[in-house]
Structures are given as C-alpha cells and as structure tokens.
C-alpha cells in the first residue's frame, strides 16, 4: 500500500525543486518580452490526474489561465471568471471534465449526511451543492449552460466557450457540444 504524503515531505520535495529552479518571468518581464496577457481560461477538475499544463503542454508564456475545482464546475468560479475578464479581457473559455472523475463516486447527499452529523442544527446544509455528478458529458453541457446563462458573462465570451472531455487513458480531448 502506498503511504500518504505529509506536508513536511512536500516541503522537502520543494527544496529539491528550488535547488534546480529556473526563475519564472514576472508579469512585467513577460510584457517586456512582448507577450500579451492571458486571454484563455481553462477550467478543469482538481484531480491530480487531470493536469491542464500536461494535457495541453502549457508554458507560463502561453497566455492561458487555469482554474480548478471539483469536476471543473463553472458556478463556484463565476466570480473569478468575471474578475479575470474585467482585468485581462478573456477571449475564450475551455471547460474540461475528465473520465473516471471522483465526482461520479460521491453524492451531494453523502456529503450533506456527513456534515449533518457534525452540525445537526445547521439547516443551510440542505441547500448546499458539492459538485457530484452522474454523467460526465451531461455535466459539461450543464456547466456550459451555467456559463452562458450568466447575465454577467459577455455575449462574445459565452459564444467562445467550449466543453471537452479529457480521457485519462488516451490523453485525448473530445469536444462536447453544449
């Protein structure tokens, strides 16, 4: 059985990385290189098997921002998207969910039941959403619908928002129409 890492072990790993680290350009240095600010958002799952820098071969100067949470849901990150669009002028959004997602395994009801045991008098728990899904392709369509239905998302940005399914076995992205 594989043992779980600890924060102290992660800090030791960081020391090894820092010893070989090559400085990443600052925002000012990137601008001086003539690189435009990021204009693409990739929104995906927090699962460590679904790493957009890997499956899209991203570099710091590519102009791509990554946002991650359970299953890559849009709703919890709408404010972030709006702030980034205001500041940077986002051109496109890529919503990427993946095969074998853990959000297929748990249910919102499981999380609520656990929280109710810990907080039996909290009635707000019943109204919470925790990101569980039953169909990955449908969840991509649902997240595209959430994004496009927001009255604050610019029409041009909504029209340039697309959904994809990342297959963790093949590494391929498949477009999912929303």
UniProtKB/TrEMBL annotation:
Chemical reaction(s) catalysed: hydrogencarbonate + H(+) = CO2 + H2O
Coiled-coil portions: none
Highest rank taxon of the organism: Eukaryota
Family annotation (Pfam families): Pro_CA
Cofactor(s) this protein cannot do without: Zn(2+)
Cofactor: binding comment: Binds 1 zinc ion per subunit.
Gene3D superfamilies linked: Carbonic anhydrase (3.40.1050.10)
Similarity remark: Belongs to the beta-class carbonic anhydrase family.
Physiological role: Reversible hydration of carbon dioxide.
Protein name: Carbonic anhydrase
Originating organism: Mollisia scopiformis
